[in-house]
Design goal:
- This protein is mainly beta.
- It has a single domain (10-105), classed as SH3 type barrels.
- Helices cover 0% and strands 45% of the residues.
- It has no helices and ten strands.
- The strands form three sheets. A five-stranded antiparallel sheet has the order 6-3-2-1-7, with no helix packed on it.
- The relative contact order is 0.21.
Length: 109
């Protein structure tokens, strides 16, 4: 089944500690139904000294959150919208439910 969110989309968080914040989708973890959003759900990770990081210390990283907790942002209104699929010119397009704005085609970028 096609996903309503793609890598690179701007999404809005609709529940949790980061509710109301927006960010860009960096990665989609399909098997677990999770997305990694830039600047959302950030945690501190303690790392041991190694060749890559000889000092060790703490780094901030974006943790994944469930795909049901985000909505794509409508580029015209700037609000989170639900998405439906429509066939146009033989291709499947993602369309914002409220405004009818085209959010792009379904498939690989």
């Amino acid at each position: 089944m096609a996903r309503k969110i793609k890598t690179g989309d701007t999404v809005m968080v609709i529940s949790g500690a980061d509710k109301g914040k927006t960010g860009r989708v960096l990665r989609i973890l399909g098997e677990k139904d999770r997305v990694v959003v830039e600047g959302i759900n950030r945690v501190w990770k303690h790392v041991r000294p190694n060749q890559r990081n000889p000092q060790g210390g703490r780094i901030q990283k974006d943790n994944p959150l469930h795909i049901s907790n985000v909505l794509p942002v409508d580029p015209t209104s700037g609000k989170g919208v639900r998405v439906k699929f429509e066939m146009k010119d033989g291709k499947k397009h993602r369309v914002a439910v409220g405004s009818g704005t085209d959010l792009g085609t379904v498939g690989k970028r």
